[in-house]
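Dear colleague,

Thank you for sharing your sequence with our group. We've completed the structure prediction you requested, and as agreed, I am returning the results in plain text so they can be pasted directly into your records. Please verify that the sequence below matches your submission; if there's any discrepancy, let me know and we will rerun it promptly.
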Amino acid sequence: MATILLSGTGLMSCQEDPLTPTTPNLQEHTAAVSEINFQGEVKSQLIGTLGGFDSDAEAINNHGQVAGWSTIDSGAFRAYMWDEHTGMVSLGTLGGEHSEAFDINDQSQVVGYSLIGSGHEHAFRWDEAGGMRDIGTLGGDHSRAYGTNSHGHVVGWSENASGELRAFFWQEGSGITDLGTLGGTESKAFDINGHGQIVGTSQNNSGDNHAVLWKNNHEIYDLGTLGGQTSTAHAINENGQIVGESTNAFGSVRAFLWDETSGMTDLGSIDDTVSEAFGINDGGQVVGLSSAMRHNNAFLWDITEGIIDLGVIGESYIVASHAKDINNTGQVVGMSLNLRAGYTNGNAEDAIAGMWTFPVTGDKE
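Please find the predicted structure tokens below.
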């Protein structure tokens, strides 16, 4: 187990005004995977809110741009994009009160959902040129987008005309497509890589939800479980490695890593309890949450270092954390749950988006 030193910084500046986030010059960046120095100091920082009490960081691209959601001073939710130059910038809505963002690609395109004027949730894709665009639905009232790849393809879930939740794939020019199920009525898609491989969950004929992979022109494959009844796949990297969570034979929920060679592998947990995996980079490093004592803590898993407790961000009133995504340069994003100053119980906890940055020693061979 590696020795990790955690150092924290305070809140960074943020804004709700219509400042446009900066878009990096893609010619100056690569998607190479950096070698993490696990013996070095891990820097951490809270990235603030849009004026409200709560925020979460859901995704980070290889340029260090972050997407997520934050409350504003009215308490409404807003999708945001953050980088170290502009801070946190609201992406607006599709006409309703709330919006949330769940993924961002290396072209600075952001996906999520927003309420429209009728109050229904609709999936969106945002970019600098066109702003927030309504992706629509599969015939029902609601949809949400959870993943996007380097080609701007989008995946998520939508209600169909019968009110069933179905995983969808969307691309420019072709619109939204139902990805089907394992034989049950519902499915959801959560991520897509540059090869068009999609992961999520689907009900089978027995009504159990299993982690699934769509590939080869959207054929669906059951990834199985760790011995229990249910599983969900949350993320896939460019090498086809998949992470999520599954119940095991004892009914416990455990984070897993799946690949075509080894199948589904239990990644363990911090205190031999519950764990869930939400993100994986192209180096096969995994992030998520695991129970530690009475609270959930963010973790990073590496094939040589095992599972590493990332702890929490900040110096006081911090009670829990989770990690949602990791990029190829050793940056991890997620949330720390803070007990508001002046309170001594759990009645005033604020979720604040944050980032852990690992030191790197250069690109992997």
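Summary note from our side: Confidence is low (pLDDT under 50) at residues 1-30, 342-347.

Kind regards,
the structure core
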